[in-house]
Design brief:
By secondary structure, the protein is α/β, with parallel strands linked by helices. The protein has six helices and 18 strands. It has a five-stranded parallel sheet, with helices on one face. A five-stranded parallel sheet has the order 9-16-10-11-12, covered by helices on one side. Helix 2 links the parallel strand 2 and strand 3. The longest helix is centred in the C-terminal third of the chain and has 22 residues. The protein is elongated and about 65 Å long. The protein binds NADP nicotinamide-adenine-dinucleotide phosphate. The site of NADP nicotinamide-adenine-dinucleotide phosphate has 21 residues, from helix 4.
Length: 304
């Protein structure tokens, strides 16, 4: 199938790039391997997207998708299995829809949750270990849970889980949260029990989780706490492994692009969480998407 612009990933960056690209008159496809919206589809409430205070992540994702489809972007739900991007004619190979040919490609593949890497984590995934509080929180009604991490995700997960769980612990490896002050302040009076300077050294239990062992990072002392579930919120890993090997990436795997989303390959742009940058928010992903589509427009115009 031939398109002018192929966008890899249907999160906020990809959907926005789609909107801008199709409005510039191009034939556009977005390839999305799971569901539109990316990580926001797993977010309970988005309080910092202008004009839509308190909208649920799923609703925001669906509104973006509806907008994109209404304008005529082709959504292809499939996995990208390879790319050839260095030539003028760029190829995005998919598992079930063959090769998509494009003049320009915008990579908006996002990121996935990082694992803790502690004993028994893999054994209990889906049976007590979760990477998505919004998805699994309701299973912990009147149960005890622990959240790991010190960023905005960990804090918002804690607050969300207080709606269900009888006890919520937050374990953070340092003595200071990384989360924004406004989010951190919400923990005060929330009832969340915070364990600073601690990491989880073991997940305990045979058939189901019975608790975790905390290791103090200052004196190495160990403490067992009884909990039923663990919510891991220790950041993300960019989804860059299987695609666009020609595109430069940093030591963490984020694609390197300039402020105009241009990469080292002509006609290839990177937008959203998979790009090396400091601030990863829905609005900055959307901003990237708009810029990438405009730069793709400029690139294609200069080709013709
Ligand atoms: P993050 O800001 O990168 O925070 C990850 C946290 O996990 C850090 O506190 C880090 O500790 C800790 N950590 C990393 N590896 C660890 C390990 N192996 N063991 C224990 N702890 C570990 O990630 P995030 O909270 O997912 O947020 C990602 C981005 O999304 C941020 O830019 C954030 O602001 C944004 N976000 C925004 C909202 C919102 O605006 N509503 C909500 C969620 C996320 P250190 O602090 O010691 O590094």
């Amino acid at each position: 199938m031939n398109f002018d612009i192929v966008i890899i990933g249907g999160g906020p960056a990809g959907l926005t790039a789609g909107i801008y690209a199709v409005r510039a008159g191009y034939k556009v496809a977005i390839v999305e391997k799971q569901f539109a919206g990316g990580q926001i589809a797993n977010t309970e409430s988005v309080d910092n997207y202008p004009a839509l205070f308190g909208i649920s992540g799923v609703d925001l994702a669906m509104k973006m998708l509806e907008h994109t489809e209404k304008l005529g972007v082709t959504m292809i739900y499939d996995s990208v299995v390879g790319t050839k991007l260095s030539c003028k004619e760029k190829i995005v190979s998919t598992q079930n829809n063959g090769n998509l040919i494009a003049k320009a490609v915008i990579i908006c593949a996002g990121a996935t949750p990082r694992k803790l890497g502690v004993p028994n984590e893999d054994k209990f995934v889906g049976r007590g270990v979760s990477y998505c509080a919004v998805c699994d929180g309701a299973f912990y009604k009147n149960k005890k849970v622990v959240v790991v991490g010190g960023g905005n995700t960990a804090v918002s997960d804690c607050l969300y889980l207080t709606k269900f769980a009888s006890e919520v612990h937050l374990v953070h490896r340092r003595d200071k949260l990384r989360a924004s002050k406004s989010d951190s302040d919400k923990l005060v009076n929330s009832g969340v029990i915070i364990h600073y300077n601690n990491v989880i050294s073991n997940i305990n239990g045979e058939d189901k989780i019975s608790g975790v062992t905390l290791q103090n990072t200052l004196d190495n002392s160990l403490t067992d706490i009884n909990i039923d579930g663990i919510f891991v919120a220790v950041g993300q890993i960019p989804s860059s492994n299987d695609i666009a090997q020609e595109v430069e990436r940093d030591e963490y795997g984020y694609f390197v692009a300039d402020e105009n989303t241009c990469t080292n390959i002509q006609g290839v742009f990177v937008a959203g969480d998979v790009r090396r940058k400091k601030v990863r928010q829905v609005i900055t992903a959307c901003s990237d998407g708009a810029i990438a589509a405009e730069l793709a427009n400029e690139y294609i115009t200069n080709l013709e």
